[in-house]
Amino acid sequence: MKMSPKISLLLVGCMLVSVACGDEDEPLTLTSGPAPDHEADMFRTVLKDLTAAKQLPVKGNWPDDFGDANFYGPGFFYRYARGQGGNPHQEALGHETHAYNMEVLTDSLADAGKLVKNLEDVMMSLFGLIERYHHSPDPASLTMLDKAIDVILLLTGTMDYYPEGSSSVGGYGVDTYGPTTTNATLALLCLEYAGTVGGAKKAQRIAEAVAILEKGRTMAWLKDKGYYKFSSTRSGLFLYPNITQLMSHVRAYELTQKKLYLDRAVDLHLAIQGLKVKGEGRYRSPYSATYMGAKTDDYTTLSSQNFTMIGLSLLYQQTKTAGLKQEIVDILAFIRTRLLSGGRVLHHWMDGKLAVPSDPEYYCSGCNLQMLYIIHRMDELLR
Questions:
Q1: What is the chain's Cα-based Rg?
Q2: CA geometry: angle 370, 251, 383, nearest 5 deg
Q3: Which residues are within 8 A (CB) of 83 and not within 5 positions of it... i.e. 6 or more apart?
Q4: pLDDT per residue over 297-342, tens digit each?
Q5: Span between the terminal Cα atoms of the chain, in Å
Q6: Which of these, 65, 3, 64, 57, lies nearest to 30 by C-alpha position?
Q7: Is 293 helix (H, G, I), strand (E, B) or coil?
Q8: What's the CA gap between 372 and 77, in Å, rounded?
Q9: Is 193 helix (H, G, I), strand (E, B) or coil?
């Protein structure tokens, strides 16, 4: 899921044309590479922390990653290595995560219970395989992609692609992010396959994605409110379900050119303004506020801001609305000034203060990799 750079902030796009830092004869290291135009100091600080000797080897199974590194391990390190003409040290980390993803998928497909329990990890591993296929097409990845996507769609199709509650399909992802987010992610998985892999199943995957989105519209769209609900049991405006639906609708527009999907995405951007924190450039992200112990609505996670930046970037590529670009710059400034601490970006800002180790969640390596991926690609995606 090669295509226009419009086609994916998540998974695809043209390789950045960059000049490596330092003398061309200087040995490449895990931190070698071009400095991005946006937030270069934070980028290098976080990259240094993630690849410090004390953190390695991870062998593809990044600690404290909440499954996000299954995609953003290959997603960042393959692209950053290629952006400087090839860095074998960085590519090795991408290869390690790819190998881990193949193990996750092999084990999960052999055990239906494990597939259900680890649905989020499985889907992120599939996004990682799509990224690998973009970097280096191989039959093994393609075979695994086809088999796993078919099984997941068969499983979730019995629930109208709207798996709600741990009794039907479990895992941290469904319970934490909600069925509307899962619906959008399922559609996005098919769209990214169509855009990157293409081939004989391209039209089929697009049709599957469209059907999934329409089921999500039926199950979760609140016409009188102008946004998608989180689930049947949680009321109010939430960021995750609406930003992921925004992302999927922009991608559907890119691949079908049906303006209906772009119009929906524009409407969703307007809807989430109700979660914007005035003067701070960030969005409140209440999906896990209660679990984390927030006493007020002053709660924002790195993960949700990352996905918001991705969604706004995709929308900017289609509309070229200058305000979208500025929103992303403002979110990054919030991350640097509020969440960056000790060389890493912490999990959240809550009740006027930064996350502390005693919070249920404190740090996410996958979210830090995701942020590096976004910053690295901004020069291309926001031009």
A1: 19
A2: 65
A3: 15, 16, 17, 18, 33, 34, 376
A4: 999 999 999 999 999 999 999 999 999 999 999 999 999 999 999 9
A5: 22
A6: 57
A7: coil
A8: 9
A9: helix
Question: What residues have CB less than 8 Å from 147, skipping those under 6 apart?
Answer: 109
Q: Is the CB of residue 181 less than 8 Å from the CB of residue 241?
A: yes
Order of strands, sheet of 348-350, starting from the edge strand that comes earlier in the sequence: 299-301, 348-350, 353-354
- Convert the pLDDT of each residue in 355-371 to its tens digit: 999 999 999 999 999 99
Of the candidates 252, 270, 276, the one whose C-alpha atom is nearest the C-alpha of residue 262 is 252
CA-based nearest residue to 254, from 297, 313, 202, 318 = 318
- pTM of the full predicted structure? 0.90
Return left, alpha or beta for 4; rule: phi > 0 is left, psi -120 to 50 is alpha, else beta: beta
Q: What are phi and psi of 353, to 5 degrees?
A: -150, 165
CB-based contact 287:177 (threshold 8 Å) = yes
Tokens linked to 326: 């500025």
Percentage above 70 pLDDT, the chain = 91
Q: Which 8-state DSSP code applies to residue 347?
A: S
DSSP string over 146-186: HHHHHHHHHHHHTTTT---STTTS-HHHHHHH-HHHHHHHH
Other C-beta atoms lying within 10 Å of the C-beta of residue 232: 14
Q: Which stretches of the chain are DSSP H helices?
A: 40-50, 69-83, 88-109, 112-117, 119-135, 139-157, 171-177, 179-196, 202-220, 239-256, 259-271, 289-292, 302-319, 322-334, 365-381
* Two structure tokens written together for 57: 């080897």
Closest of 144, 135, 78 to residue 107, by C-alpha: 144
DSSP per position, 201-267? GHHHHHHHHHHHHHHHHHHHEETTTTEE-S-SS--S--HHHHHHHHHHHHHHHHHH--HHHHHHHHH
Widest CA span in the chain = 62
Residue 226: left if φ>0, alpha if ψ -120 to 50, beta else—which one? Answer: left
Query: What tokens were used for 145?
Result: 């992609």
Distance between CA atoms of 80 and 85, rounded to whole angstroms?
Answer: 9
